[in-house]
Structure formats: C-alpha cells, structure tokens
Amino acid sequence: MKFAVVVFPGSNCDRDMLHAITDALQEEASFVWHTETDLSPYDGILLPGGFSHGDYLRSGAMGATAPIMQAVKQEAAKGKPVLGVCNGFQILLEAGLLPGAMLRNESLSFICRNIGIKVRRNNTMFTSKYEQGEEIILPIAHGEGNYFCDDQTYEALQRNNQILFTYSNNPNGSVQDIAGICNERGNVLGMMPHPERAVESLLGSTDGLTLFQSIVSNWRESHVLNT
Ligand SMILES: NC(=O)CC[C@H](N)C(=O)O
C-alpha cells in the first residue's frame, strides 16, 4: 500500500509518520509538499501533526486553504483512507472534511503525555484490529485539542457512529471526551492522539501500529475483492 504524507510549512510529525509507515508498518510512503495538486497515485493520505503556518489565525486554518487540500478532497470522495493526526485533524476540520472545530485546551496549556484512549467502534477501516471498547495508550501533544461541536452536530455524530475514539480521562475539555471522529462514509478520520508515535515498544506503546495495520488490512481486502 502506498501512502502520501502531506507536508505543510511547520509540519513537525511528518518524519515520524514516514518512519511509522516505512519502518514499522513496512509499507511505502512519500512526502508530498502542500503546493502539489495530485494525490491520485496514492492509496492512502496522511496529514501529520505540527504547527502548519505557525498556527496563525487558528491552528489548521491556513493549511486548509493549501492547493493540496483540493486533491485530498478528491481522493476522499473516491473512498480512499484519509487520516489527519493532531494538526492534521485541525486541518480536516478547517477544510470542512469533518464537522466541528478545535478550541484551545481548557487549561490554556500545551499538554504532552501518554494517555488512555477508548476504542468506541472497531468496525471501521481504521480500527478493525482493535477490540471493541479496548483501552489503548497513545501520546497526545497539543495546545488546541479541545474539540467542540454544537448539540445537533453531536447528535449526528452519535447517530452515524462517527465517534471512534474518546479519552478515558478528558485532558483538554473536548465535548463528550471526543478524541477522534470520522466522516459519515467512514474513510476520513481525524484524531488528536498520535498513533505514529506509538509504533514500537522502544517508544513505550505499539497501540498506534494497530491503527495503521487496520488500514492496510482493509485496503488489501477491498483491493483483492475489486480485482
Ligand atoms: N502536535 C501537533 O500537531 C500540535 C497541534 C497544534 N498545532 C496544537 O498545538 O494544538
């Protein structure tokens, strides 16, 4: 499986993401600069964490207007997996690929530590290799991870089973402990915790690798069925 790791000015988890895919997962990945306009050669799109454009205006707001985002939308519309982690999640929200918005952490402090995350749904292309309800450990590292949506949007997220991850102990004030949501179709996932930083035991957890393995396994299944 061939992944694109989209790089914005100020991305700082792009190399971790590439390492997770090529070294830990043993799949292909290439960096794609934010001014590019074609992602059609790739099977999966990864938007890594960081501080795109210095988090000016709001985190993710300027990244969301990059030329590459039209291509991300096109590939998402084809049903390809699109994963935004941390700043990548913020960009997906600002680009309108996912509902809601990100506010500053309730504490107004940057939080960087490992944290318990509950897998709320394991029947998706991103979570199929987890147990339903499993508690995993992933690192978080953000200043604006306080997910907000209005009641109507939250009801829709629940009704459509779009909440894939919640915090066991809410660190940032997110509505209903939300740590990760997908779109209605289930192929675009945004999450604040960093799976790419938990792909080998040396890093303290391999729980993030399971997410990438789920993507590959689902892609292989659908690829075999379609050919
Ligand atoms: N690690 C990251 O992606 C940081 C995300 C973001 N810019 C924040 O601090 O909220």
UniProtKB/TrEMBL annotation:
Keywords: ATP-binding, Cytoplasm, Glutamine amidotransferase, Hydrolase, Ligase, Nucleotide-binding, Purine biosynthesis. CDD domains: GATase1_FGAR_AT. GO terms for cellular component: cytoplasm. It is found in: Cytoplasm. One of its GO terms (molecular function) is glutaminase activity. GO terms for biological process: 'de novo' IMP biosynthetic process. It comes from the Bacteria. Its EC number is 6.3.5.3, 3.5.1.2. It catalyses: L-glutamine + H2O = L-glutamate + NH4(+); N(2)-formyl-N(1)-(5-phospho-beta-D-ribosyl)glycinamide + L-glutamine + ATP + H2O = 2-formamido-N(1)-(5-O-phospho-beta-D-ribosyl)acetamidine + L-glutamate + ADP + phosphate + H(+). Pfam families: GATase_5. The active site is at C86 (nucleophile), H194, E196. Part of the FGAM synthase complex composed of 1 PurL, 1 PurQ and 2 PurS subunits. Part of the phosphoribosylformylglycinamidine synthase complex involved in the purines biosynthetic pathway. Catalyzes the ATP-dependent conversion of formylglycinamide ribonucleotide (FGAR) and glutamine to yield formylglycinamidine ribonucleotide (FGAM) and glutamate. The FGAM synthase complex is composed of three subunits. PurQ produces an ammonia molecule by converting glutamine to glutamate. PurL transfers the ammonia molecule to FGAR to form FGAM in an ATP-dependent manner. This is Phosphoribosylformylglycinamidine synthase subunit PurQ. It comes from Pontibacillus litoralis JSM 072002.
